[in-house]
Amino acid sequence: MAEKQHPVPAYGLAARDHSGLLSPFNFSRRETGETDVKFKVLYCGICHSDLHMLKNEWGSSTYPIVPGHEIVGQVTEVGSKVEKYKVGDRVGVGCMVGSCRSCTNCSQSIENYCPKMILTYGGTYHDGTPTYGGYSDVMVCDEHFVVRVPDSLPLDVAAPLLCAGITLYSPLKFYGLDKPGLHIGIVGLGGLGHVGVKFAKAMGLKVTVISTSPGKKQEAIERHGADAFLVSRDQEQMQAAMGTMDGIIDTVSAVHPIMPLIGLLKTQGKLVLVGAPEKPLELPVFPLLMGRKIVGGSCIGGMKETQEMLDFAAKHNITADIEVISADYVNTAMERLAKNDVKYRFVIDVANTMQAP
């Protein structure tokens, strides 16, 4: 087994098969190389994609799998050539730990679109060994893929920003939907959507939350500061809002109709998908032609932009709404996540509850 090659003992939670059940797992990390940062994991957020990967719902999982790509902690060791970090720094690692560093995408700081991008878990590292994520006590990562967590952001509420935060921040910026005064819709008020509302409001946008759940109206407006709330199953409400939005960020991962969303857009509006339904959606072309509308996608962000997002979050006091859990509660948390029974992100208190026996 490749595990044996690495000298740093690590302890975490892994699934051994597509039941997705997590149990204690002893493994090892590589020693801190010249450009590596080693850190003690303090918190790790639980992302919906962790659940998909644990159960092999996307068909790409290899076991054993240690999930977790919203990882924050404190630096304990740095390699001799590390320039950005020192022992004691507060750092994070998001969805990727490597890329080729030489292709066009990498040179443009969009390493997340590098064809050789290496996922934080469930991937294969440059040395041929499997990558393991943040449901573990220690992390070793090349400094290029490490971000600094600003001092004003508490680590537990900052962890989900490393996936959920950048997933919403990046398309708002790239598609030009970050200009004050624009009106945007955010579909879904879950782990992604609630953070998106906060970023959009901090950018000076008018925000309408679009949801199938009328019960979420109060929290969308009073708790997160949305300007309006639209029940997507209410034909009258949808009809009244037709042609009013400059852009829509759709965070929903279930199969759902996008025709009504396209109708909400103004001429030349943009619908950006960031959720990943497992079956194809139906795309009606005629409404796109008649309004010169765009349907696009976006997946996390590059390292430079991820740091920019964290700094923006610190400046505007943007954090995720979380429920902190202990390591032994993780399987229950996964059951609850499958039922969307969380407001809005579970975060594992790794430092205090995940110790090797």
From TrEMBL:
InterPro entries: ADH-like_C, ADH-like_N, ADH_Zn_CS, CAD-like, ER, GroES-like_sf, NAD(P)-bd_dom_sf. Its cofactor is Zn(2+). It comes from the Eukaryota. Signal peptide: none annotated. GO terms for molecular function: mannitol dehydrogenase activity; zinc ion binding. Its EC number is 1.1.1.255. Residues 20-348 form the Enoyl reductase (ER) domain. Keywords: Metal-binding, NAD, Oxidoreductase, Zinc. SUPFAM superfamilies: GroES-like, NAD(P)-binding Rossmann-fold domains. It catalyses: D-mannitol + NAD(+) = D-mannose + NADH + H(+). It holds the Pfam family ADH_N. Gene3D superfamilies: Medium-chain alcohol dehydrogenases, catalytic domain, NAD(P)-binding Rossmann-like Domain. One of its GO terms (biological process) is lignin biosynthetic process. Oxidizes mannitol to mannose. Provides the initial step by which translocated mannitol is committed to central metabolism and, by regulating mannitol pool size, is important in regulating salt tolerance at the cellular level. Belongs to the zinc-containing alcohol dehydrogenase family. This is mannitol dehydrogenase. It comes from Linum usitatissimum (Flax).
